Amino acid sequence: MKCWNGFKGFGPLAPWGKALAATVLVATVGVASAQSITMASTTSTEQSGLFSHLLPAFKQASGLDVKVVAVGTGQALDMARRGDADVLFVHDQAAEEKFVADGWAVKRYPVMYNDFVLIGPPADPAGVRGQDIVAALGKIAAANAEFISRGDKSGTHAAELRYWKLAVGDGSKGRGYKECGCGMGPALNIAASSGAYVLADRGTWLNFKNRAALAVLVQGDRRLFNQYGVMVVNPARHPHVKAADAQKFVDWVISPAGQASIADYKVGNEQLFFPNAQP
């Protein structure tokens, strides 16, 4: 039995048939690619479980899929500079504002906040328990207590370095200071297995299942405030960026519906993030 493969006399596929097939293929690929955007974000937004809650709601509202690449904020910004992302969801305000000033994004939108906490062994060998993060890090350095730093240029790492600068200036962080070059979850795992101190965002900590004997020791310092922002990568820098679809995500996540979805995400009846988009 012969399969039909074109009109009689034109062979397997006439030139105009090839052109038509190519056009259909390109159109099909274009439609498929238009149905998703790539987001470069922090490990905290993913490992806290927020995106598993938030992104299905966005897809229902928009029809768009969001492909998340979860890395440290510094790496996320680098991805966007290379044109490898359409939208950013990160938490290092100073770096974000510089990103906009340098022309890589047109505007930064505040979207939500939570806070950082200092985690450590309940016995607290360095005696850091309290509300003062700077005093706590100074005690950790003086005691040469084990401290796990992410060391990955993330928003959490940037905040940690600011606190260390206030605590010890250019001095030593102590012999127990170690950089893992890893995300928030792995850093917490290392701290849990070694009984070390570690700075974490509260959202990831609340969703962290392998706590071992770790506990929150320092919280409530106003300097531990942790703001998140969203930005569309500037298409003037990278014309292939899906700026219109990326803007749909930004518009939704700062809208009442998106902000309510953020507020609704809880672990153990505890809210992990607090929406604060500015109309």
TrEMBL record:
Q: Give every PBP domain span.
A: 32-256
Stored Gene3D superfamilies: Periplasmic binding protein-like II (3.40.190.10)
Matching InterPro entries:
ABC-Tungstate_binding, PBP_domain
Tell me one Pfam family matched here. Answer: PBP_like_2
Q: Which UniProt keywords apply?
A: Signal
Where is the signal peptide, in residue numbers? 1-34
Q: What is this protein called?
A: Tungstate transport system substrate-binding protein
